[in-house]
Every structure is written in C-alpha cells, then in structure tokens.
Amino acid sequence: MVRSSRPGLVLEVDRRTPPVLFHNGENFRLEKLPSGSRIVYPPEPLEAVKHPEDAIARAVAEPNNADPLRAKLRPGMKLTIAIDDISLPLPPMKLPDARQLVLERVLTLAAEAGVDDVELIVANSLHRRMTESEIRRMVGERVFRSFWPDRLRNFDAEDPDDVVFVGTTEHGEEVEVCKRAFESDLLVYVNINLVAMDGGHKSVPVGLGTYRSLRHHHNVQTLLDSKSYMHPERSALHHSATRMGRFLADKLDIFTIETTLNNDAFPSPYDFLSKREFEWSFRDQATYLGVTAGLKRMPDQLRQKLLHGIAAPYALTGVHAGETEAVHAKTLENLHRQHVVQVQGQSDILTCGIPYIGPYNVNSVMNPILVVCMGLGYFFNLYRNAPLVRPGGVMILTHPTPRAFNPVHHPSYIDFFDVVLADSTDPKVIEQKYEKQFAEDEWYRHLYRTSYAYHGVHPFYMWYWAAHAMDYLGDVIFVGGDREVVRRLGFRTATTMADALEMASETVGRRPSITHLHCPPLFLPEVTP
Amino acid sequence: MTDIKKVVRGWRWLRPAALPKSAPAPALRTESNFETAWARKPWANTTRDVIQELVLLPGLRYVASPTVRGSERIRHLTQPVIIASNHVSHLDTGVIVAALPKHWRHRVAVGAAADYFFTGKIRGSLAALVLGAFPVERKRASATSARLAVRLVEEGWNLILFPEGGRSPDGWLQEMKPGAAFVAARTKRPLVPMWITGTEHLLPKGAKGLRRGKVDVLIGDPIFPRDGEDARELQVRFEQAIRTLATEATRDWWTSLQGEGGDHEGPDAARWRRVWERGDAPGRPRSRWN
Lengths: 529, 290
Fold this sequence. Notes:
The complex is a heterodimer of chains A (529) and B (290).
Chain A: E1 9-12, E2 20-23, E3 28-31, E4 38-41, H1 52-61, H2 69-72, E5 78-84, H3 98-113, E6 117-123, H4 132-139, H5 141-147, E7 152-154, E8 163-168, E9 174-178, H6 179-182, E10 186-193, H7 204-207, H8 211-214, H9 220-224, H10 236-249, E11 254-261, H11 282-297, H12 300-308, E12 316-322, H13 324-339, E13 340-344, E14 347-353, H14 368-379, E15 389-398, H15 411-423, H16 427-439, H17 442-450, H18 458-465, H19 467-472, E16 475-479, H20 483-489, E17 492-494, H21 497-508, E18 514-517, E19 524-528
Helix pairs in contact in A: 1-3, 4-5, 14-18, 16-18
Chain B: H1 3-10, H2 42-64, E1 66-69, E2 82-85, H3 91-99, E3 108-113, H4 114-117, H5 121-131, E4 133-136, H6 143-154, E5 158-161, H7 179-187, E6 191-197, H8 199-202, E7 215-219, H9 231-250, H10 253-257, H11 271-278
Parallel strand pairs in B: 1-7, 2-5, 2-6, 3-4, 3-5
Antiparallel strand pairs in B: 6-7
C-alpha cells in the first residue's frame, strides 16, 4: 500500500550522483551523466481510492452534469458499452482491471433496470483486435462468460455493416463511427486515463471511429500543430476530436465514465525501475544486475514473455462519470495531481530510454517505427507549455532498434519500413505519396478484420506522431542502435552515451545543458521556458 | 565498462549513501520504523556484554589506551544516569563505555543518529546489537525520539547521548542540543558530563583508517535536576559544566574553577584555520626545522 507520495524532483547531477537508469528496449542500462545535467524524476504514486467499487457506484449515481445512470436505463432500450482497448494502461494492470469494476457496476444497474439489449464493444478503432484471452483478462470472467462472443466484441472499423456516416462538423471533418453505438439509446464509454492525452472527446470519435474520420486529425499538419498531445488546450488533435465529439454528443446520449490510475507502474522485484537511483538500496542494485544479466542471456521469446507478463500494481485514484466534458475536466485535475512536475527552463539535449512496451506492442515486439513513435512521439511530447529541449536541440534515446517485426500484429509496418522509409522519411512526403495506398490496401484490410493486425494506415500515424519532434529537433541520436535500421529511420546512432554527447556537440556546442527524462513511470513536466 | 563496475563505482555499500547536493534529505527514521527493542532483551544484552568484553574493549584499549579521570565523582551515583559528552570520533562511544564502572556497562543504551546508523537494516541491527544503539533524530526535534529516551531511562537504562548531534569535523565544540537535558529533567536522573580528548586524532570524521594513540576521558560532576527546573534551565547549567570540564581537560582544574580558558568553539573562520588552530596531534614528531 502506498503510504505517502513525494512530488516529482529535478535533480542536478554532481559527483555524488550514481549512474542513471535508462530503459533500453528489452533490457536496461546505466549511464553516468555529466555534472550539471538535470534528471527529472516522476512524482511517487498517489494514495489509492480505498474502496474502488464504492467510488464507482457513487460516481455513476451522482454524475457530473448528467442524470444518474440508473435513471437513464429502462427496459426495451438499446445499451452499448464501449471500452478502451489493450493499449491502456501500460504495462497492463494487475487484476482486477479498472474496466472490469466499472463494467460490473454498469451491468448490475442495467440488469436491475431490465435492459436486455446490451452490447459491449472494445473501442479499438484501427488498432489490432484484442484476442479472446486478452478480452477475458480485461473485462473479468463474469462479464466475459455472460457476453462473449455475440455481445462482447472488437470494433471493426472496416465493416460496412457496422459503421455509419453521421455527418460533417463545421470544419468539414467527416464523422463516421460504429453503427451499433450510434444507434443505441445510450452509449456508455468506459475509459482508463493513463495520461492527459487520453479520454474526453478523444474517446468516442476516435475509439469508435473509422479511417474516414481519423484522417481529419491523424495527419501531419494537425500533429505539427499539437503542442503538445498532453496539453489538450494547445493540441490541434484534441481540438478536432472535441469538435467531432460535440457533434456526436448532439445526436447521441453519451455517458462517460473515466478512471484515473496512479503511476505505480512496476511491481517487486522490478520496482527499482521506479526508484530514484541515489536511493537504490543494495537489493535494488543487486536486482538490477540480476535482471539485466538474465535478460541479456535469455532467448528472445522468453524475454518478451517475461517482460510482457509484468502486471503493474496500478491503483485507482479517481473515477468520474457523466457528461464527457465535465467528467474530463475532473479527470485532468486528477491526472495532473499525479503527473505534473515543474521544470524551469529548456535544455540543449534531452535524453531518455525507450522501454520494452508501448501502446501498440502489448504482447508483441516494439519494431523500429514504434520505437520512433515512443521516443519522438510520446516522450518528446510529454510536456506542458514548452518541450524540455530547446528548438534545434538534440534528443538522445537508448534502444537497440533491432529490425524485428511481429508479422501478425504489424504486417503493414514491414512494408512501411522496407518500401516507404527507403523512399523518404519526410512525414509530409510520405503522407501524400503512400498513405491512401496503405489505408485502402485490401490485404491489410483483410488482416485487420480477420487476424490481429493493426490497420494498414497505422504505421503512418505512428510516423506522423513524431512529426512535431522531427520538425523541432536539430538531431536525434540512438545509443546502441542498429546502424542500418537507424539510418533507414533517418537518424544517427552512437555506441555509447559519451559518443552520443560528443556527436551532439556538433549541433549544440561543447558545453550543452542536458536533461534526462526518467520515464517510465509516466509523468508530465510542466516547463517554464 | 561492465554493469558490475558501474554499480561498484556508483554506489557506496555499508555506508550511508552520499546524496547528490540537490537531492531531498531522506525521510528520517524513527523507532517506529526501526525497531531496536529486541536489542535490549536479555539474550541480546548478554551477547553485547560478551562482544564488548572480549572484542571491543580489549581492542579499544589496544588502540586508544584510555586514561580515565574523575571516576570518583560518580562513585556514589545510582543508576540510571544520562551521560552526555562531546563528540569527535566514532571511538567516543567505546571510550565512554570503557570509562564507565563495570557494573554500569550491562545496561547502557546509546543514542545514535537515525539518519546515519539506521538507514539500512544490516547497519542499524549491528549498531543496536553491538553498541545498544537506538535511533535519535538529530535534524529536528522529535517527540518519538524523546519519548523513547525517557522510557529507556525509566526502565533503568543508562543513556549515552552526544548533545552536539554529530561528530565535530575539526575537534572544536559544536552547538549543543537540549535532548540530554530534556531527558534528565523529565526523569529527574543525574546528567553526567564527560569530555573526551584524543579520539579526533585516532579516527576523525571522514578518516578511512584508524591510528593508535592515547585518549583522555574526564568525567565531570553529575548535575542533578532541581525541583521545578525545566529542561532549558538545566541545559544552561549543563553547557556551563561541559565548558568547565573542557577547560579542566585542556588546562587544569584550578583554571577551570576560575572560569578562564573558555574558548572551546574555536575561531569563526574557514575550516582549515579551525583545524590549524587545534594544533598537532599528540605524538606527531615536531618539525626538525624548529
């Protein structure tokens, strides 16, 4: 149990500072940063809600700016419950999953009200379908047994019978969503908010949206204008999603239930990953040595199985229900309470380690495009106000970037890497030249619908996600990266951190300021330039 | 560099971590989260007696050859008492124990810095077993530490406390905290001032090796709390007594009675000048150029 939570910390490295932990794909490494560098540490996990079931019951009984859920339920109605997919939270949480607890409450109320026509839809949008066992784990045995497979399913954004074109917003954005959800008397959206980017109006129009809808905000220009994704007020992506969400909310009764988690991301014995290195005990040091040596020697499959088997001891810090915007405002408050760390000033160099897991490779391999998305898409954009690194600065990332792809989950990524990136790494060029071809490719469409493949257009979105960072940064260096792969990605590679800093000096001079983002666990630096 | 080398070079073992300057101080540990009551149970007490009598005290006598003066001042005292001394070296605790009457040593508890000795399980448990240490928070006034100290005296334990809160970096007397006077005032038990000279040359703060030499321990007149006297008033008397004792130790008894030779805090100057002012360690050969 979490007893107290210390706020985040900006540590200045001096000669007493021990080496700093960097995630390094499916392993970890220690790096000694130069004196004067800053390390930004996340706040410690907030205390959990003591009785989650009671909190959920209270939230749906006393919602924000909406009637209580019980009052919305009646016999003969059509009820659809949409659920966030496996991309949240990361790592997957220890059971029971927050979604299970919410679903059980909502379904209990629906049963009491005599609602028969209930359908549960995983709002996976263009993500891969979740497998049966993944869904069972997420929703819990009771719900799974009651609804699978007819009334509990993945959303199929390419099923012409299950999508409906709703109309266009005042900005000309086409809104096309899941038909079953749109035609329901009530849509309940059950959300997990791990970071400030998630939730709000981004849930329904994106999670239950199709390519036709998503392309209006998942495009290079919109993402270039999103500064950052974690700061919804300054994110063109969120502005677009909000317009679509409001457009839908006028036509559809949406009851949003958002949950927030603390950032207790790693269970024992991996809890050293969440600790500040200068507070590492002898046990933490020994565990680090044991874990890194073990992971290094393991066969790839076993290592992935072990790492993806880690279940985070996340705990619920809040649950709010009701009208989407009123709920999301409270959710953001909760998230900021857990995540925000004040940082003064930008630096010339930002360093960060890329972990083994991201939103799009749960139970899979993090391929080179996802590595770029994690580093330049997510970690670079992990800020409010201003990036941690100055315009034209350098980002140094640690990851071995092997040329490894999961052909079941990421088939279009392989062609994207071999064909598209061989031609150009410029997001705008790629968007114009290749996006439509991949998005409408029948084979990818078939794999998305019948196998467990991400949609054909998904690698493009991952690349666009990094567009803002590519436009903003002067150089990107991967420490320990595969030279061929990193060159194909359009970046540079260094053998050691010292080499990377030496290479960075070409861009930022001989005496650069350095900031290290000690992430994960996730947090949100609020940077005052 | 291999990971093992990085870990070996990056962290300190069996010593408290050297925190980066900008790092927040660690949460202070207290009796509530470092249990030492087991170390005062009969079996632990006996173990400690054996270790002290067979290993520690013979070793200490070999290294420090302590000379104890003033024992007659406490010969009529009944236990328990609170012993408060200046503090310049890790050897001080052993030297005080060696200076105590033999029948007192069996029930001695030593106030040890919670943020130094009790930051790790192994270190804290060893300190509790071998020295009879219990954690004292020295960076702030702590009701928990004070309550524990009072309870120990009430249970009949002689306390050894270092009112300066830590070893002097240069041998000069530091500002004294009122903890010892507080315990004495609350329990109405005598406060015995002691002055140790010489340990700062054998194992000064920050030293990595131990040198042999001679150590003097001077025991002062016990201070009995008066009726109605509070800790603050007792602290004033104690501070006066320890300065007098310091003068007696460094000059002579007569000078101390006259209230002269009273600068024991050293010059208000840079550290090297304060060390310089202390003079050479005894036994060091004089420069042949003089």
